[in-house]
Amino acid sequence: MTSANQLLECDMAVVGGGPAGYAMAALLSSKHEHSVVLVDPTPDAPWPNNYGEWRAEWQELSKRLEMPELLSQCVRREWHVTDCFFGGSWGMPTSQRTRLQREYLQVDRLALKDVLRAKMASSGKCTVVAARLNARTIAPNIFDANLVHDASGSTLTLSSGQMIRAKIVVDASGFESQLVRREGLLEAAMWAELPPGFQIAYGFTVDVAAGGHAPYDAEAMTLFDYRTDHITEPDWLADVISRPSFMYVMPYGKLPGGRWRAFFEETSLVGRGERRLEFEELKRRAFRRLEHLGIEILPETVDDEEFCYIPMGGSLPDLSQRVVAVGGAAATVHPSTGYQLCRMLASSTELASSLANELQRPDFEPDAAAAAAYRTLWPYKHRLQRDFQVFGGEFLSLQPVDRLRGFFDAFFQLDQNVWGGFLAGWPGLPGNDNHDEYYKRLRFGISLFFRFPPQVALAMMFYAVQFSVEFGPSLLRSFAEPLFGNPAPAVDLRDARRRLEDVYVQGDMEAKREALRMLRDSSGVREGSLPSPQVAMLDNEVDGAAYR
After folding, report:
1. Is the distance from CB of 21 to CB of 179 less than 8 angstroms?
2. Which end of the chain is more exposed for a tag (fewer CB within 10 A), N or C?
3. Angstrom distance (rounded) from CA 71 to CA 62
4. In the 8-state DSSP scheme, what is residue 487?
5. What is the pLDDT of residues 431-467, one digit of tens each?
6. 142, 322 in Cβ contact below 8 A?
7. Which residues contact 215 (CB under 8 A, 6 or more apart)?
């Protein structure tokens, strides 16, 4: 423990106590052996969200992070197959089940936090401070209080009075961060602001009576149930059709005495404004759905109640700022699906390596380190792939339930590596190599388009035009990149700064030296005459140039 009056000095201050903050602190301290201070207001509190992931992605991350514990200790439950229900439209019977031969798992979030904490503790280089950083960005690299940057690093003053001196500040406080500035329309190549949407879900774990929870198979994870036959009231049904939601089910198996246990969650994929669903409405829909299916839940056994709120899409962080964002603060949440944990962990490995490499440079500069980190996190290629995903999320957010059924029925007809790669959507995760180039996204889009029911295909075609007219060419650029020319090559900030200084600070040194030589040669031509005042001025400029 440290006194609030004692200055804590470190290589990196990580602000935020969620999975992103702990993952970065663990990687930087245990793998890269840098000193870290993790600022977590509630270090002993459990993480609230229920994380479900594809096993193939979780397995790949175990290798990528060099953490076998992700598989051996951090999996609560696994299912060998995944079910979906899209019946009720396009000639599909309501009872039709779409079975995906792909394994799914539930992350043990308590064990995950324990594993990351153990990594941090074993390194001997990470200090956890139970406090908040109450600072808000008010201008580029300027904050209203408690965070000050200077040439060699940053000083943080926490709510406890503890002061931290760090070479780099990493923000892992989530999408709605007060530390991170978002890029403007010019940097985003957008014509109009496109605010984030929100995935809203109400979930709970509960015991089910001995009759079980059919049609939800006890040996399968149910990813989507988009059916609406449980609603008969006309006004309510109209709302359910216009603002769709789906049931998501994780069965935990049979209990002694014949009961079953499961996690049920009614979810709105993405929406904003009038199309965003309310938690109370989702709860109402969930209980009606279960009642209609004859699933008898035992209310007195409800626990682990979850109110899921995931911002999706929106703007990227300003890539020129000193604070380095990670996770939600860096907009790594999938804009079409809301998947976030695997994408954050996949991005954190290269981000941590970039920061570690910068810290080892003899010419270390905080601004250059942050710029290098952002080049790693959001290079042009990643941005184009995200632009495609943003369009997908916007399209899905506007569709009624019949079109969503048609969309996802066609989507899961694609090769598993293709649809799995889109759901992952981050470099290094399985299947992403089917989407990481413009022509692959074009091929994916065409293949999906011709599988759609006609109304879904027309809706997507018209919305692509509407989206492009309103927001700009980001969608077109994402699958027709060559039409827009080559982007400017990424440049190290140090080199860029030197070039600017050469042009705008030092100027044309040869011209200055020539003028100085001529002035010196002509001075004192007449007895008693004084040298031109330009001699002294140019003397200072030429001699001082070496020190700039």
Report:
1. no
2. N
3. 7
4. P
5. 999 999 999 999 999 999 999 999 999 999 999 999 9
6. no
7. 85, 95, 97, 293
